[in-house]
């Protein structure tokens, strides 16, 4: 299965986009559990 072939910017691009909107990102990796990506993005309440 080809998941991008190394042509993208991957996690660095995700981090850049999340931080650009004032959010934060956490990436954790387990030896047998794969990778988890958590992103927190602030949302304004509508008036």
Q: Could you walk me through the main structural features you see in this protein, from its secondary elements to its overall organization?
A:
This protein has 47 residues and is of the alpha+beta class. It has one helix and two strands. The protein has one helix at 10-20, and strands at 24-30, 34-40. The protein has a two-stranded antiparallel ribbon. A hairpin with a 3-residue loop joins strand 1 and strand 2 (34-40). The protein is flat and about 45 Å long.
What overall form do the CA principal axes indicate? Answer: flat
The level of helicity is 10-25%
Order of helices and strands: HEE
Instruction: Tell me the β content.
Output: 25-35%
From the alpha carbons, calculate the radius of gyration and give it in angstroms.
14 Å
- Quickly count the helices: 1
Q: Residue-averaged pLDDT, rounded?
A: 84
Low confidence ranges: none
Number of strands: 2
Q: Compute the separation of the termini in Å.
A: 46 Å
Instruction: Characterize the main sheet.
Output: 2 strands, antiparallel
Query: What is the topology, as strand order, of the major beta sheet?
Result: 1-2
| Structural class by sheet pairing and helices | alpha+beta
